[in-house]
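Figure 3 (text version): structure tokens given as input.
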């Protein structure tokens, strides 16, 4: 059973995930900038990997454990720092910074 607060946070997290995925899809389709990382270079692989690494944190809302929650908050803060670095080269990536900040904030809210 998921607590009411966590249910609301899960909805918020899902909305941010949908925006994150949609923005990446738009960038790939319109060829605005590359989201390729090493061998993850096809549109399907990029979107699948993006959904996998960000969607995995949804488990926090179902298995509320302080260490598990902190791991995912730190994980998204690390991804946010990576996006800051990448945004220096490609300014259009700034929504990804915001998304990882929101992911971290929503996950931290589940912990509190």
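Below: residues designed for each position.
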């Amino acid at each position: 059973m998921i607590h009411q607060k966590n249910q609301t946070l899960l909805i918020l997290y899902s909305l941010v995930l949908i925006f994150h995925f949609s923005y990446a899809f738009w960038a790939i389709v319109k060829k605005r900038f590359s989201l390729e990382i090493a061998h993850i270079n096809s549109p399907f692989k990029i979107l699948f990997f993006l959904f996998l690494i960000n969607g995995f944190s949804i488990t926090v809302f179902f298995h509320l454990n302080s260490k598990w929650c902190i791991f995912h908050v730190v994980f998204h803060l690390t991804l946010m720092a990576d996006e800051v670095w990448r945004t220096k080269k490609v300014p259009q990536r700034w929504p990804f910074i915001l998304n990882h900040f929101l992911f971290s904030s929503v996950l931290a809210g589940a912990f509190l």
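Helices lie at 4-29, 43-55, 66-89, 94-111.
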